[in-house]
Specification:
Layout: H1 2-12, H2 22-33, H3 36-40, H4 42-48, H5 55-80, H6 84-87, H7 96-125, E1 145-146, E2 153-154, E3 159-160, E4 176-177, H8 178-187, H9 202-219, H10 223-233, H11 236-249, H12 254-262, H13 272-286, H14 291-296, H15 305-338, H16 350-362, H17 367-400, H18 410-426, H19 434-446, H20 449-465, H21 468-478, H22 486-508, E5 514-515, E6 518-519, H23 522-536, H24 538-549, H25 553-558
Parallel strand pairs: 1-4
Antiparallel strand pairs: 2-3, 5-6
Helix pairs in contact: 2-10, 2-15, 2-17, 4-15, 5-13, 5-15, 5-22, 7-9, 7-17, 7-18, 7-19, 7-20, 7-24, 8-16, 9-18, 10-17, 11-15, 11-17, 12-15, 15-16, 17-18, 19-23, 20-22, 20-23
């Protein structure tokens, strides 16, 4: 049967698309790697881990792990010319990596759809006569709500301190900013816990459906169509980021915010957590999901993937660094306006994008314009990843079952099937208890330990099982001019060592997931681990199957 599939593949893969222009691949990768993590995670990590001192472990991690992993995945995909599910057939013992990557990509795209629905809601509300997160006169506000113009906010506890000049300290502990209440009571309509899922937030569900309809018609014809969209969605967010940066650095208090962002604390370099955060950030933004393998498979065999990998690394890390200036200049302004310290407003993740930044933008002249511009940037950043992940899901299934290439509407049908599956998985995340499901899937399924495990297996599969010298010869076949023998040592020693170290460190310090100091119930923790294992288990399962099928033992399996 497998021989039959390979025979069919040889005839049907003629229908597999290729990049039309050189920049099609480059911009698609940039759009995928430069995502929300560059905006809502890196600046906070930099501030938290010693400011400018954090750049030392970060840059070292990029050189020794990030770039080698990026180049490994892209060169691998370009050499085999197949998606992530079929590419690992080159290393039979590691065939399961393809399906593991497929599962993670599916989970990640479900998460991105929800984030886009949140951002779309904020974007539309930015055109309201009065920004709804700035007032307390709405039906979702409580008696403890304090409007932004009268409060100093401590978002680490989601409480606000005493209104400036009021002299009232009795009720200060219970005061909650209007932005927090808008996020929790209106956008999420947050339930008491995971056991109380509540009803569907129909407004968010409509945004979710609408966004996926737009996405479908942008990518249902494959890269021939999606690249036209990516030229806009990958470049416009960078332009918007520059605009937000220019506006931010001109605000009163911006200098204090930037100083807070970059002020070096060299003593932090002695803390293991700082180095772990650097490696983790690099992993999340540089690869490990198999998407790069699929995108590179559309390249011509002699495409200069080494040059592109360098450019992608510079744009990716450069955007992360520059976004810190945009974020902390604005937060410095906000802190000065409210006469509070920057520690009280510094935040990462959704809290930065959907609570703190809307507050900060509401204090700038013409807040509606800046809010709309900011959330449009978030939507475009999310769309880039969503387009790329969806294309990789579709082509991976079509590579596994190449008969679909012969059907006139084969790609469109597979695309529609995945859209329905992803919307079905995302629907629980737009209910009243959706934030709990979102965090559970994000922590265990789309990120966390499983990403490090798969990345470690990729390094081991190509550098140790297949052979680093053997694989480097394939790279030289594609790029005869390249002279980068140093990267072989990163592939064989540095990459797998650091990846395994982060994995062990993560597992050693594992704590049950919690939200607002409430620990998830045991059954939810078990469900989370099952989500992670649903991707990672494919690797040992396929390895055992290959060994069982082989009459010559492990040596025969490793001999290709």
């Amino acid at each position: 049967f497998l021989k039959f599939v390979d025979l069919v593949l040889s005839f049907k893969m003629a229908g597999r698309q290729k990049w039309g222009k050189r920049f099609d691949f480059l911009l698609s990768i940039v759009g995928m790697t430069v995502g929300l993590g560059n905006i809502w995670r890196f600046p906070y990590l930099c501030y938290k881990n010693g400011g400018g001192a954090f750049l030392i472990p970060y840059i070292l991690s990029v050189i020794s792990i990030g770039f080698p992993l990026l180049f490994l995945e892209t060169s691998f995909g370009q050499y085999v010319g197949q998606g992530m599910t079929k590419a690992w057939g080159m290393v039979p013992l590691m065939k399961g990596i393809g399906l593991a990557n497929l599962m993670i990509t599916w989970y990640a795209n479900s998460l991105y759809g929800v984030v886009l629905a949140w951002a779309a809601c904020y974007f539309v509300k930015s055109f309201s006569l009065i920004l709804p997160w700035t007032t307390c006169s709405n039906i979702w506000n409580s008696d403890n709500c304090v409007e932004l113009s009268h409060t100093s906010v401590n978002l680490s506890t989601n409480n606000a301190t005493t209104p400036i000049g009021s002299g009232d300290s009795e009720n200060s502990v219970d005061s909650i900013s209007s932005a927090v209440e808008y996020w929790e009571n209106y956008i999420l309509k947050e339930s008491p816990g995971l056991e109380h899922m509540g009803g569907v937030r129909w407004e968010l569900f409509c945004y979710l459906i609408g966004l996926w309809i737009v996405a479908y018609f942008c990518i249902f014809k494959g890269i021939k169509w999606s690249t036209k969209v990516v030229y806009v969605t990958s470049t416009l967010p960078l332009v918007m980021l520059v605009v937000v940066l220019v506006r931010g650095v001109t605000l009163d208090g911006a200098a204090e915010g930037i100083y807070f962002y970059l002020n070096p604390n060299m003593t932090k370099l002695g803390e293991p957590q700082v180095w772990m955060d650097a490696v983790t950030q690099v992993y999340y933004s540089y690869g490990g999901s198999g998407v790069l393998v699929t995108l590179a498979s559309y390249n011509k065999f002699n495409h200069d993937i080494y040059r592109d990998s360098i450019l992608i690394s510079l744009v990716n890390s450069g955007t992360s660094f520059i976004s810190g200036f945009a974020v902390f200049s604005t937060l410095g302004f906000m802190a000065k306006q409210q006469n509070i310290s920057i520690e009280e407003v510094a935040e990462s993740g959704p809290g930065l994008v959907f609570i703190i930044y809307p507050q900060a933008l509401s204090m700038i002249p013409h807040p509606h314009i800046w809010s709309a511009l900011f959330f449009l940037m978030i939507i475009f950043l999310g769309f880039d990843c969503l387009f790329v992940f969806q294309e990789c899901l579709v082509v991976s299934i079509m590579d596994m079952f190449p008969i679909w290439y012969s059907f006139k509407w084969g790609r469109e049908a597979i695309q529609a099937m995945f859209v329905l599956l992803i919307v079905g998985m995302a629907t629980p995340m737009v209910t009243e208890g959706g934030i709990y499901v979102f965090l559970l899937l994000n922590e265990y399924g789309g990120a966390g330990w499983c990403v490090f495990f798969i990345g470690t297996c990729e390094f081991i599969g190509l550098a140790w099982i297949y052979g680093v010298d053997r694989y480097y010869k394939h790279v030289k076949e594609m790029l005869p001019h390249i002279s980068a023998t140093w990267i072989k040592y990163c592939w064989k020693y540095v990459g797998p060592s650091f990846s395994m170290g982060v994995l062990v460190y993560w597992l050693t310090l594992y704590k049950p997931l919690e939200y607002k100091s409430t620990v998830y119930p045991v059954w939810a923790q078990v469900l989370g681990w099952c989500l992670g294992l649903s991707s990672c288990l494919w690797i040992p399962v396929f390895a055992v199957v290959e060994l069982a099928r082989s009459s010559g033992g492990i040596k025969q399996v490793m001999r290709l």
